[in-house]
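Translate sequence into structure tokens.
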Amino acid sequence: MERIERHACFGGWQEVWRHASTTLGCTVNFAVYLPPAAAEKKCPVLYWLSGLTCNEQNFITKAHAQRYAAEHGVIIVAPDTSPRGEDVANDEAYDLGQGAGFYVNATQEPWAKHYRMYDYVLSELPQLVEQHFPATDARAISGHSMGGHGALVLALKNPGVYRSVSAFSPIVAPSQVPWGEKAFSAYLGEDRSQWLAYDAVQLISQAQEKLHLLVDQGLDDSFLADQLRTPLLEQACSSAGHPASIRYHAGYDHSYYFIASFIGEHLAHHAAALR
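Result follows.
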């Protein structure tokens, strides 16, 4: 574990750490915001998963979440979106390979050796956080776009692990949209039945724990109709009786301006569940 950044922020510390991941088989960065309360006691943790092309920097520099995390006494951990390195498989396209891990455990070559972001976020990362930082084992999870997909899937598949979940502009049905079809074909193979284990819309009816889903979606998001398809999540929740607040916002797009506008409400949602 090597700390490579440290900045005073709203009375706490915004840090970035680097470590050798046994799950991913490479060196990986993750960001940690430590609120002022962490200087005196252990604090609960919100895990944030970013979207396509992002790394650990996007959320910590654009979302302005630290102010609210400081107020609520919540640690925020933001990992990278994929394994990286010269020996890590990649693709020239922005929506496959490095920067586009999709939070799955890949089963196909050349991806299977390194692309295990699902296991990394679920197991290795929280073990590191709870060992090396003043963190309790109370966890929440959130994310944006591809990361929103990851947050929903991890929460739905792992009852008891997270106390709350939310998402901005998530890819709710990756097995039915171009981004997901491309990534899942590469990482998981052509057998579409294998894709359903990472599809939130498919997982809703099987969820053993009915965590309330908080989802915000901008109506001026250029990806809404073709890639995100939020109404499919609404329909799945309605059919399964799964509690959800799925909110649409006129004028907002897919950017971090949208996230920054509502991140305070998401932090309050998680803080209430993490108390």
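Note: The chain has a mean pLDDT of 98.
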